[in-house]
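Researcher: First entry.
Model:
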Amino acid sequence: MRLAEAFAAASRDDIKAALDGGKLVVYSTGRPPAADHKVTRSAALVSFTFASPAFGPDADAAGDAVTANLVEPLVAATAVGTPSFARLLKADGTVVADLSAGPGATEVKLSEVSTTAGHPTALLSMRLPLPAETVTWDRTAFGHIFATGSEEPHRKLSVRG
């Protein structure tokens, strides 16, 4: 999970409260390096709306699993694509966080490997892991910028510029 700057010091309960009536929007590839950046290279695949309250009792009191209360548990996809990340938004559209998304062991686990416009998609499980990932920037001698929030090499991003 990558938090927006405004939520950098928020607790899990603060994040859950901020999402009352908000949205969980799932996108295809092209996750921005930080939640405060615009989504520019991805199409919104499916959008879930949280009820108020947005979450029920935690699914795992010792961990980071949460139980989302959605207005509709099955939502028709709006585009064709492979889920890559999800953005959490407050009811007013303010960005709260970005999460990994897909059918596997991710922060937002979906029922589908890929989406097709008009076909239903369900949210199977959700995690809000804290502390959140942090992003650091390093410039190489060749002008590449590396962003990483994890020690895992596959979670790094290289930008030329």
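Researcher: Second entry.
Model:
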Amino acid sequence: MNTARDSAVTERGMRIGELAKLLGTTAKTLRFYESIGLLGPAPRSASSYRLYGSEAVASARLVIGLRHLELTIPEVQHVMHEDGQTTRRQRLLSLMDERLRNMELDLSVLQGRCEDLSARHAALLATPRQRPPQCVCDALLRPCSCLKAN
């Protein structure tokens, strides 16, 4: 970043395209965030361009950073909302704690499913050769009924 240019841009106000480029997002995204209240309304230039000062740039940077954490729009709104009782850090930590607990639960479920599939795979591999070639009873973890059907 060219700091002399950046400070000049911030002094006069950064246009939405410049801000979008700086943050690696699109002007459309920034306009959407403004429309739902995640970003405050930007003052306008004489020619109606949105102009973002240093405070608005910092706020937009925060919103984009929170979205990069894969927080949903309502979660970002929750983190950004000043309630006077909890800090932004506390609200974000609470969301991250919940997300970690959910991920750990999801991983446990996936581990169980993986172990089950592995056991069924091993059982199918161990199917005796004298069984009919179409027999998959061992993968279903049930006694073979294929020999009785023939």
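Model: Note on the second entry: The two ends are 77 Å apart (CA to CA).
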